Amino acid sequence: MLIGPNSSKIIEKLCPQINLSETSFPLNFGRKICLGHCWVEAFHKNYFGEIGWELLHPLLMQNTLFDLIFDFGDEFGIKPFGVYAANSMAVESSYRQIKHELTPDYNLWECGLHSHVDDFTDNNRDFPGKNSLIYLKNKERWKFITLEVFGVENVDARGGEPIFDEFGQKIIGRVTNGSFGWRINKSLALAMVNPKFAEEDTRVKIKILGRLYSAISIHENPFEAQKSSFK
């Protein structure tokens, strides 16, 4: 993955003949291109709140491609990042992930992915599970929310922590993923809760390593919201 505001500039330097305009290479579009002397399947995606690229390549060319990208990206201050940084950015953007929210425990409506599902359930195209998915619409047992956690110092929610009402007496849900958001300087948690407690600005408690911390439900995708406030 190549992510960041200058990611497309690096692609253009490695493949100057490619047209990366929005009409020629729109978001969520992919095609085979040559970067330097390495052919890749390039997919233009939005990762973790930043425009980026997924580059599928032959394994034997991995080191070559890595070196090419870093050589051409040096002028843009390119840096590597690891999976913990990736998860932090995903949480800042309220991204649902496999093994966290996208599991057999929750359906797509409960994950808040209505805009991704409506087109498939409203048309005449059939697919396995369509009738069950339609039946489950508006029958959510859980609701996906984003929480800002207060008072933490050396810990953050990671997933699996119980969520209580604001008095710390009744369990109302659980954390599905969490991290400190380094770009917005906040401790965050993604969670599935009883729909009665899913309204924005609802105050709750999260038990992390045996201690209750106060939290509040905030607007989805806090990273994008903070970026917008700077414009």
TrEMBL record:
Residue span(s) of domain GCVT N-terminal: 2-117
Any single Gene Ontology cellular-component annotation: mitochondrion
SUPFAM superfamilies to which the protein is assigned, alphabetical: Aminomethyltransferase beta-barrel domain (SSF101790), Folate-binding domain (SSF103025)
InterPro entries cross-referenced by the UniProt entry: GcvT/YgfZ/DmdA, GcvT/YgfZ_C, GcvT_C, GCVT_N, TrmE/GcvT-like
One of the Pfam families matching this protein, by short name: GCV_T
Domain annotation Aminomethyltransferase C-terminal: ranges: 154-216
Family: Belongs to the GcvT family.
Protein's recorded name: Uncharacterized protein
